[in-house]
Amino acid sequence: DRPVINVFIKGARMFGRGILFAATASAALLAGGAAFAADCNVPVGLVMELTGPAGEYGQAGAKSVEMAFRDINDAGGVDGGCKLVTDTRDSQSQGNVAVDVATQLVQVKKVPVIIGGIISSVSIPILTSVTAPAHVVQVSPASSSPTLTELGREGKTNGVFFRMITSDALQGVAAGKYAMDQGLKKLAIIHVNDDFGVNMVQEFSKAYKALGGTIVSDTPYNAKQASYQAEVTKALEGNPDALYLVATPVDGATIARQWISQGGPQKFLLNDGMNSDDFIKAVGAKYLENAYGTSSGTDTTPSTDYFNANYKAFSNIDPGAPAAVQGYDAGAIVGLAIAQAGKPDAAAIQDSMRKVLDPNGTVIHAGKDEFAKALQLIKDGKPIKYEGVIGAVQFDQYGDITGPFRLWKITDGQVTTVGTMSAADVDAIKAKMGN
Questions:
Q1: Closest alpha carbon to 329 in 72, 1, 129, 131
Q2: Is the pLDDT reported for residue 24 higher than 60?
Q3: How wide is the angle at C-alpha 409 spanned by C-alphas 207 and 58, nearest 5°?
Q4: Which residues, in sequence order, are bridge partners of residue 384?
Q5: Distance between CA atoms of 227 and 349, rounded to whole angstroms?
Q6: N or C, where is the chain less crowded by C-beta within 10 Å?
């Protein structure tokens, strides 16, 4: 019987070792799985104008998205602890380049979301050529062309497009009223000859003329020219009181210097993108003491205070830089939508973009602690309402937002807010115009 007993004992020992090995292996797999969950990344594509005429906008916007993702990651991350990471590409402020890099992000990198571009002439070709056909979510921090709304109305966006800035169809009206209020009643216009510039001037002109203003010349320009002497000479015909300059900071500074050197009046109306330290320094603050502008505005919230207090240390960029505040909110909403979706799937994220702005949800503001609260509420199946740096917004069926407009003036080389114009004020002006 002893050999049988010995065999039994050996078998039991081997069985025990097998159990121990299986248990050890299972523990290792579980540990490995936990490590994977902790270390996994959710990529989001950024197509930003890091260089070219709109480089200042894209640099600010990209840093803002990165800051929002950092705050969400520090709060616990998404999808079981995964980290949001950016895969950033430079559009060089050119639509064809933007399409190429966006195609790489969607087809090769398989990103479920693209944030960008900043300017409409970059965002529109990305939308029509890449994201809409692929049903990939696209969020623009600052593209304001009315064409984007029209594409939605025509059913050409597949519902994937969202933006964090009001349409020029509204901003042009606000700018027309502001110009008249500042006594700028006889204007020359010089504008960039692209979708943004043409649409902005079209909407502005309708409102400005209806309010009693006179446009003595309307001169388009092509970007990145060494000189704009011919355009300025033409714009000065008719002896205007001021210049309405719709441009980007680099070209805008060249045009403004040319205008001043040719004896043009040192009174300016500027578009939102000209709210720029680089523009002011390049032209000279002393020549811009009568320079006024409008921007898609903000309703101050705790998110605004958080951003203003922390952005400069994170980015070394002023929080008032064009596209900075909108970039943070774009990143925050995308990050929260990915958490809400529970997976990096474009269709689920698209469905979640409005859910994280639920009017009946718990109000959430910017920053790590607030995002930690948001992530827990999402995990518990409860609704949230993100109120961002630009204030509380909702997306309409075309991905547009409505909101206030900021009225500003350049004083001693600094852009200072002098007032606001509500969406209701703009609607009232449009009603008087018969729109």
A1: 72
A2: no
A3: 85
A4: 362
A5: 46
A6: N
